[in-house]
Structures are given as structure tokens and as C-alpha cells.
Design a protein that fits this description.
The chain is α/β, with parallel strands linked by helices. The chain is 41% helix and 14% strand. The protein has a single domain, classed as Metal-dependent hydrolases (TIM Barrel), CATH 3.20.20. Strand 1, helix 1 and strand 2 form a beta-alpha-beta unit. The model has no long low-confidence stretch (mean pLDDT 88). The protein has twelve helices and eight strands. The chain has an eight-stranded parallel sheet.
Length: 283
């Protein structure tokens, strides 16, 4: 790992993989991550109890799984003070993204977008949306957010946490992302977990390869799925991400790239570092 420069396109301010390391920057240093895009973490009461291992018998015995899931859904906008504080310690290393909840009561909509605008003024470079923890109306909420971002700044980046459709939420499909890319050709879109399953990786590579404003992020992905997207869409828009320290561990995610077969070291360097710099117009 030491011979590669690493720019992680998907990190969080905290998580279960922070063990002996005292903070995120120490964790990044340990695994030679020079720079990172970071956002905050879900801090609903149920989620905090789960992280601490203090779920009660009543919590665990709930028969209605949907009710249990909904306890983990944030209400309104999550504070990003943690992200701001980390960035203050290492402004040359940290790029701030705002985890935005586009699903809200109508009376909170103006306030929520005011909060987002204020964070743009404070140097946040993009927005992350999560269709599981924020049960979005697709495509209505997605299009409204994209339109707002483009009005604010054409260089803002939208990170979409891709997930399959389930009984709990609609998910965001490749078709949804393609429509978004067509309607907003200047909007740079990161497809998070772009190869989380082989079937999705094949579809993502084939359906979305023609859209130059779509980028493919690798965290929590199947290694051969990443390989497949390289072969179908090319390597120039593939971004290394770890979803660490929340959902995965840095060395695992890094090795998925460094051990790819029949991929040159120059291509691996682009994926691990230079492609993200280019996306941010800093290379």
C-alpha cells in the first residue's frame, strides 16, 4: 500500500473501525491516505445505542421490523460540526460533503435548503444522499436537489448511495441516475458502491458508461465488479472509496484495487488518487 498515493472519495467522521486510533486523521495516517472526502454519520438515538452495544431487550424484541428500521431514519438535517472540526485540523487533506435529507415536512423545506446553502458557503464541496436512511421520492426529490445545487455552483458534486429496491425503500436505479445525468449534464455525479453486486456492476458499466458526468466509486464493492466497470466504462472515472471507518476497513478496500489482475500500476494510481483530484479540478 505504501507505494500508492491514496485519495479516499468516501469516508465518514467516525465509525466502528476506529479502534486504537484516536481519530479519523490518525486512522488515515496509519494506512497512508493523504486526502479524503468525508461526511458525517447517522446519529439517531437507536443507531447510537446500536453502535455502543446498548440495545435493550425491548428494542431487540420488536416484532415490526419496519418500526425498528424507521428508528434509524434521521429527522431533518444532521449536524456536521464533526466534519467541520476535522477539516479545520487538516484543511489541505479534507474535502467536506453534506449528508442531505431531501425528505422532510413541507414547512421544513425552505429551512433545510437554507442550511445546505450555508454549508456551501462554508466550503462544502458536495452533497451525499442515502435513499435508505432518507426515504426519498424518486425522482422528485432527486431532481429538486440537483436543480438547487446547479443554481448554487456548477462545480458542486452529488454523491448518490446506490441501493437496490427493497420493501423498505425505492432505491436509486441506473435508470434514475441516467435520467439525472441527461437532465443536468453539468452536474458531476458519483455513483457510490458502484459494484456492490456483480449484476449491478454490469448494468452500471453498460448503461452509464456514455455519461461523462458520472463517476463510479468502489467502496464495499465486489472486486470483479470493479474490474468489469474498468473494462466497460474505462478507468478514468473510477474513484477509490472505502466507506470507512463506518462500513468497511481501509486495508480491505485498498487491496481490492492494488490486487486487481491485468490492470497496470498507472491505472491503479489513477483510481486510488488522481481521478479524484481531477474530479475536484485540482490536478
Amino acid at each position: 500500500m505504501e507505494k500508492f498515493k491514496i485519495f479516499d472519495a468516501h469516508m465518514h467522521s467516525n465509525g466502528v473501525w476506529l479502534k486504537e486510533e484516536k481519530d479519523l486523521l490518525a486512522y488515515m495516517d496509519k494506512y497512508h491516505v493523504e486526502k479524503a472526502i468525508i461526511t458525517t454519520i447517522n446519529r439517531t438515538k437507536y443507531y447510537e445505542k446500536k453502535e455502543k452495544g446498548s440495545i435493550s431487550k425491548q428494542d431487540e424484541s420488536e416484532s415490526n421490523q419496519l418500526e425498528k428500521f424507521l428508528k434509524m431514519v434521521p429527522k431533518g438535517q444532521i449536524p456536521h460540526d464533526d466534519v467541520i472540526e476535522i477539516a479545520k485540523k487538516a484543511p489541505h487533506r479534507i474535502y467536506k460533503f453534506f449528508w442531505f435529507n431531501p425528505t422532510m415536512n413541507p414547512e421544513l423545506e425552505a429551512e433545510s435548503y437554507d442550511i445546505l446553502e450555508q454549508h456551501f458557503k462554508e466550503g462544502f464541496r458536495g452533497v451525499k444522499i442515502h435513499p435508505a436512511f432518507n426515504i426519498m421520492r424518486i425522482p422528485k426529490d432527486l431532481m429538486k436537489l440537483a436543480s438547487f445545487m446547479q443554481e448554487q455552483d456548477k462545480d458542486l458534486i452529488l454523491f448518490i448511495h446506490t441501493m437496490p429496491k427493497t420493501g423498505y425503500f425505492n432505491g436509486v436505479s441506473c435508470k434514475n441516475v441516467a435520467k439525472l445525468a441527461e437532465m443536468f449534464p453539468d452536474l458531476k455525479i458519483i455513483l457510490g458502491h458502484s459494484a456492490y453486486a456483480m449484476e449491478f456492476a454490469v448494468e452500471a458499466g453498460m448503461v452509464l458508461k456514455k455519461y461523462s458526468n458520472i463517476y463510479f466509486e468502489t467502496s464495499c464493492s465486489v472486486s470483479f465488479g470493479i474490474f468489469n466497470i474498468i473494462k466497460t466504462a474505462g478507468h478514468e472515472r473510477i474513484l477509490f472509496g472505502s466507506d470507512s471507518p463506518t462500513a468497511s476497513h481501509l486495508p480491505i478496500e485498498i487491496q481490492k484495487i492494488t490486487t486487481l489482475p491485468k490492470i497496470s500500476e498507472d491505472i491503479k494510481k489513477d483510481i486510488l488518487y488522481y481521478n479524484v483530484l481531477r474530479l475536484l479540478n485540482e490536478y
